[in-house]
Amino acid sequence: MSTYHRDPITDPEELRRRFNAKQNGQHEHAEGRDSDRPSARAVVRCMTDVEPRSIEALWPGYIVAHKFNLIAGYGGVGKGQIMANLIARASRGDPMPGEVSGTVARTLILAAEDDAHEDIRPRLDANHANLENVLILDGVDLGDGDVRWVDVQQHIALVRDAVIEYGVDLVYLDPLASYMPGVRRQNGGEVRDALGHLQRLINETGVTVIGALHLGKEALNRRGAMKVLDSVEYVNTSRNVLGVNDLPDEHQPEDVLGNPDLGRRKVIAVLKSNSMIPGPPLMWSRARDAEVHWHGVAPVSFDDSFASAPPETMREGARDWLHDFLNGGMQPQAAVEREGKAAGFSLRTLNRVKAELGAKSIKDSAGPWYWQLPPRETTPADASAGGQP
Question: Helix count (H) and strand count (E) of the chain?
């Protein structure tokens, strides 16, 4: 440990004099340093000069304003659909889901995968957006008439100028990584440096930034925000992280299971929040070519939405289990429900595979309901072995 010691400045007036001298460019030079040569220095502020500021929310509990946010999900799960609904609400000044009041916000969209004509505009129309408050950034022109791809590391000053000129309140990048060309996404230092340019945009304009990311291949084996693709720096740098996923099959309405065009139920949830108390996971859906509809609090968390096996595997397992459970004879329905739940199958799933097996419900005149498999047809093998139908 160093034995060097310097007495702290205890006189407030002396501390104030030194800060004022720094702000006025009157640098005090250490002994032996050329006083005529500009020198590098640490830029320090006294906390008496820092004004406290309350945290604001674009969507209380879900999206923090004037900060960097993320929304993550598998490709095609509906990140663009849910953002179209939120952007449309902001464009009209309507309340966000679960809120009673809203504020008008103008959005600038950077879209690398969705087509403005075929994807983005129809979604905004379906959600009744005020299109005057939604802008799309096609690229940057460096003065030669050639529209180039936006690179946040090189062109953030041009994006800042557009934000200021058009009065933008929200910038949405989908997917975020497409606007960080050359950055190795598994390299934390490179990711952090690139995201620092977006933080500069936020600091200089007060704009809210939301970046879309995909979930990693190992999402099933990770918890919460750690499901997000590639470097953990994406998550560490953001103040709020939202996750979007399909709900398991047992939480889907019967008519939706038979007709996906009606819109599967999905969950959106806060995976990380550094700036506000997170809201509960919410359930939503969107039928083909329709607006997003909200259905209240989701029945399971974001993590638990990954817990179920794929629908086909779940049904196959339930079918095999029910067949074995009833194979020895009819069983009380209460026992089927109790033992089936213990095995991990919902009543809805059991009813579905019951119909597939051709099982029947039978009621004794004064007793409980029973489930029973249909009589098995006698096969030549059964007959030769003396089997009974």
Answer: 11, 16
